[in-house]
Amino acid sequence: MEGEPKDPTPSPAGAGSAGSAGGTGAADGTREGRQRAKSDFRFDDARLCFAFAGTLADRGTGTPFERLLRPEDLSRWAVESACTTAAPPCTGADLDRARHLREAIHRTGRALAEAVPPAPEDIALVNRAAAEPPSMPELAPDAGTVRWHGDGITAVLSMVARDLISLCASEHRAHVRLCGNPDCAVPFVDTSRASARRWCSMKTCGALAKKRAYRARRQSPAQ
């Protein structure tokens, strides 16, 4: 998100001006020189924990789009999020565990946005994930890049859970919003000066809203 607080958790690839060690996500909506596909992960303007929540897209529709279909997808997310520089091996059990954590994070983010207490079982799940040792940063000799070392996907999920905890312990918890696109509804942190941000990202839902408004003006009869 814009203006994210600095903490030990790595910024996801393509998130504003933050560096991304090993991430391959791109802030301009493309990856590897091509137009971004529906299955590509979204990191634009996103805090780490909410970028993870966004791996289930179109939540407000009757047919959500799952970006973590296979264990290999979770492994790819770990690298593209810049939580690690080497793709960790993942199993079906890891994928199930990651999806449960993701939904607990999403529900907790929604609770923060609605200023209601989160579900105790969701907090317990986040705490269990965060209790695992996270990946550890290693600065390159030239101080230009960072490598992350840890115990596979468990360490990555710990970093994601700790990012949510860091958010909840900060003043930014009062600025969690839900994306104004009803088909999306992913949480984000509004750190805009006027506290008037409406979309999880102007490059996705914000751009879509502008296109819809433009088409509506074009189709409306002249006054």
Overview of this protein structure:
This protein is of the alpha+beta class. It has six helices and eight strands. The strands form four sheets. It has a two-stranded antiparallel ribbon with strand order 1-2. Strands 3-4 form a two-stranded antiparallel sheet. The chain has a two-stranded antiparallel sheet with strand order 5-6.
Q: What's the short version?
A:
This protein is an alpha+beta fold and about 220 residues long. The chain has six helices and eight strands.
What's the topology here?
Blueprint: E1 30-31, E2 34-35, H1 48-53, E3 56-57, E4 65-66, H2 71-80, H3 92-114, H4 120-130, E5 136-139, E6 146-149, H5 152-168, E7 176-178, E8 187-189, H6 202-219
Antiparallel strand pairs: 1-2, 3-4, 5-6, 7-8
For the secondary structure, the number of strands is 8
The N- and C-terminal alpha carbons lie at a distance of: 40 Å
- The residue fraction in helices comes out at 25-40%
Number of helices: 6
Helix-strand makeup class: alpha+beta
Mean pLDDT over the full residue set: 81
Q: Mind summarizing the main beta sheet?
A: 2 strands, antiparallel
- Element order: H for helix, E for strand: EEHEEHHHEEHEEH
Task: Determine Rg (CA atoms, Å).
Answer: 17 Å
Low-confidence runs: 1-30
Q: For the largest beta sheet, what order do the strands appear in spatially?
A: 1-2
| Approximate shape | globular
- What portion of the residues fall into strands of 2 or more residues? 5-15%
